[in-house]
Specification:
The complex is a heterodimer of chains A (375) and B (264).
Chain A: H1 2-22, H2 25-30, H3 35-52, H4 60-85, H5 93-110, H6 115-140, H7 144-167, E1 171-173, H8 176-179, H9 186-189, H10 194-202, H11 221-239, H12 241-251, H13 253-258, H14 263-289, E2 291-293, H15 300-310, H16 322-341, H17 349-371
Antiparallel strand pairs in A: 1-2
Helix pairs in contact in A: 3-16, 4-11, 4-12, 4-14, 4-15, 4-16, 5-6, 5-7, 5-14, 6-7, 6-14, 11-12, 12-14, 15-16, 15-17
Chain B: E1 6-15, E2 18-28, E3 33-37, H1 44-51, E4 59-64, E5 67-69, H2 74-80, E6 82-85, H3 97-101, E7 108-109, E8 116-117, H4 119-132, H5 149-162, E9 167-171, H6 179-194, E10 198-203, H7 206-212, E11 215-220, E12 223-229, H8 235-241, H9 245-263
Parallel strand pairs in B: 3-10, 3-11, 6-9, 9-10
Antiparallel strand pairs in B: 1-2, 1-4, 4-5, 7-8, 11-12
Helix pairs in contact in B: 5-6, 8-9
The chains are: A mainly alpha (375), B alpha/beta (264).
Chain lengths: 375, 264
């Protein structure tokens, strides 16, 4: 009897020790979903710092270049991550980018709409399509994989068919002249902090063109959008009731419904979120290039999901972070640009992308087990 | 004011031709623990879902605080104070204790449109509530997945009480638990009742039900075999009333026989 009670006591004591260990700062850090992506991002920067440190990759111009690519991907990756935390996928992101592009270009060029009305029109279409995706998934109970795969084909096909029907081509150029004096377009087409770059140029701190203006003219709009969206999404996830509902909807749909979380509404709004993010992406690209192309955004949905996964989102939902997805996008953006500065053939980029994703998934699974380990 | 907090009078529920429940009557006072016993398929789940507002009874009435109540949804039942803790507990194991505790009913602060989830307050309440039941949550931001089965059950019950349950309906709270964990949950149930809640404890384990129950309702094939006060019925008799009791009797005789042979 006394032996038994002793063993129980010692059990209790070790139990307490375990608890003490659990709240160590390292443990807290380990529990953050973005840990893997942060480590990955640091490794990527160290790697290119060593391999391509003296090639101009990290000059003002080079940095803005890979940040721009990262930011574009990040805008859709964050929305995709939020939807994944909410327990669903959106495979129609890429097609939505193409569709939103022609929603801006055709009314503006062929129907004579002011540019700002066609931008608003594109966003309205995005809300409609996102709502349709969401309501289909919620009401039918079908996997979002199937519903949005269907939407991937429908939107891409419609983009191509409508554009060719109206314009006879697959590209709609001529938007650049419309940007000036437009009340909305500047939101997606203005380089900010130009004064800073002009000043840096005048101080000879950054590279100049032959005419004396700086090579890097300002922070591209994509980067501003990217930072703003990362902060906004993080605020929503961590600090609001709606954020808690997103985690709950993805973590356990039935349980969340039983305690009064409006799971359907949450999911529909997240689908609208990915469609709207695709449209932001499209606005920036179309206004930057001055033209819309029916094939724009192809495969972007998979890159967005890959970035979200590398950023720590679980494919099963209920776990992940916006900062993680942002870091995932930075990893991909940096490598896709950085590879040009190295001797490595750029064909290898996709190999890297795939390998990175595999490592991330294995790592995330391990972390999830750690987090939910029963005492 | 009748002496009963909640009464279920002659509840019947049909699914097509199947009679799931027939004329089931139960009455509960404040502070009473009623155990609803029955073997698998006896109609326990259907009865709970009727209490929780998931199913509407086809016959009979539910009277709560002397008023006849008709539930249109589970939300209605929650709103008047019937809190149901299902077997799956409605907990998300990847989410923190606090986030689970306030899931769907998060406290907010701040300006309209910029309202934020008041995590400090939520953490404090969650830790306090868990502390009251003797679970020391040092870090309310730890994932529920790290808690033991008994602790999770207690968290789910504690949550139902915090959000205003007057009648607590517990669906098999001890079925998946070991002896130690089960006794922890049962202790907490007794404590909750002593604070004036009426508890309906659904179980098929008489050994868990008998020590804590004040009265016992036995369901068999959709019908109530009656409600018994503890003083009027023994554990063995209760066991016998549930389907399978006879089999256990037989088993006991056989075991005794084997014992006798072995001792010879």
């Amino acid at each position: 009897m006394s032996v038994k009670s002793q063993s129980i006591q010692s059990k209790k004591e070790t139990g307490k020790d375990e608890r003490l260990k659990k709240i160590s700062p390292l443990r807290v850090l380990l529990n953050r979903p973005e840990l893997g992506a942060l480590g990955g991002a640091i490794l990527v920067f160290i790697f290119f710092g060593i391999v391509a440190g003296d090639t101009g990759m990290f000059s003002a111009y080079g940095t803005l270049n890979f940040l721009d690519v990262s930011a574009n991907l990040g805008i859709i990756a964050i929305a995709a991550a939020m939807l994944m935390i909410g327990g669903e996928f959106d495979l129609s992101i890429g097609s939505m980018i193409g569709f939103a592009g022609i929603c801006i270009a055709i009314p503006a060029i062929y129907w004579g709409w002011p540019l700002w009305t066609s931008i608003i029109f594109a966003f309205a279409m995005a809300v409609l399509i996102g709502y349709f995706n969401g309501i289909m998934v919620v009401k039918s109970g079908l996997p979002s994989f199937i519903v949005t795969l269907a939407m991937l084909f429908i939107l891409r096909g419609a983009t191509l068919a409508i554009t060719r029907l109206i314009t006879g081509r697959t590209q709609v150029p001529g938007l650049r002249v419309l940007i000036e004096d437009d009340p909305i377009a500047w939101l997606f087409a203005t380089d900010t902090f130009q004064w800073l770059f002009t000043w840096l140029g005048s101080m000879k701190l950054i590279e100049l063109r032959t005419d004396g203006t700086p090579l890097a003219t300002g922070i591209p709009p994509s980067v501003i959008w990217f930072i703003a969206l990362t902060l906004f999404a993080t605020w929503i996830l961590m600090k609001t009731r709606y954020g808690n509902w997103i985690f709950a909807s993805g973590g356990d749909k039935v349980g969340a419904t039983n305690v009064g979380v409006p799971v359907g509404r949450v999911k529909i709004s997240l689908f609208i979120g990915t469609a709207v993010a695709s449209t932001i992406f499209a606005c920036i690209q179309v206004l930057d290039a001055g033209s819309a192309d029916t094939m724009r955004g192809t495969l972007k949905e998979l890159e967005a999901i890959a970035a979200a996964v590398v950023g720590g989102c679980l494919l099963t939902g209920g776990y992940g972070s916006a900062i993680g997805a942002a870091l995932g996008a930075i990893i991909f953006g940096t490598v896709s640009m950085g590879i040009f500065y190295t001797d490595v053939d750029t064909d290898w980029f996709k190999v890297f992308l795939g390998a990175m994703m595999l490592i991330a998934v294995v790592f995330n699974n391990y972390i999830r087990k750690k987090v939910t380990e029963t005492k | 004011m009748s002496e009963y907090l909640v009464q279920f009078n002659n509840i019947s529920k049909f699914f097509g031709k199947v009679i799931a429940l027939k004329d089931v009557t139960m009455k509960l006072k404040k502070g009473e623990i009623m155990c609803l016993l029955g073997d698998n398929g006896a109609g326990k789940s259907t009865l709970i879902k009727t209490l929780a507002g998931v199913h509407k009874p086809d016959e009979g009435e539910i009277i709560f605080e002397d008023k006849k109540i008709i539930f249109d949804s589970p939300r209605d039942a929650l709103d008047i104070g019937i809190g149901t803790v299902y077997q799956d507990l409605a907990l998300v194991s990847l989410m923190s204790v606090t986030r689970n505790f306030f899931m769907g009913r998060e406290p907010q602060k701040g300006l309209p449109l910029l309202k934020t989830f008041d995590i400090e307050k939520a953490n404090k309440i969650a830790a306090e509530r868990m502390g009251q039941i003797g679970i020391d949550v040092r870090d309310p931001s730890q994932a529920v997945g790290t808690m033991s089965g008994g602790e999770r059950q207690c968290l789910a019950i504690s949550r139902a009480i915090y959000f205003g349950a007057k009648v607590l309906v517990l669906d098999e709270p001890t079925s998946a638990l070991g002896v130690h964990q089960a006794s922890m949950v049962l202790k907490y149930i007794v404590k909750a009742a002593s604070q004036g809640l009426a508890v309906i404890l659904i179980t098929h384990n008489v050994h868990h039900a008998y020590p804590v129950g004040n009265s016992f309702t036995v369901l068999n094939r959709g019908k109530s075999m009656g409600t018994f006060q503890k003083k009027d019925i023994s554990r063995e008799k209760l066991l016998g009333m549930m389907a399978g009791g006879e089999e256990l009797d037989k088993l006991e005789v056989e075991l005794k026989e084997m014992d006798r042979i072995a001792n010879h």
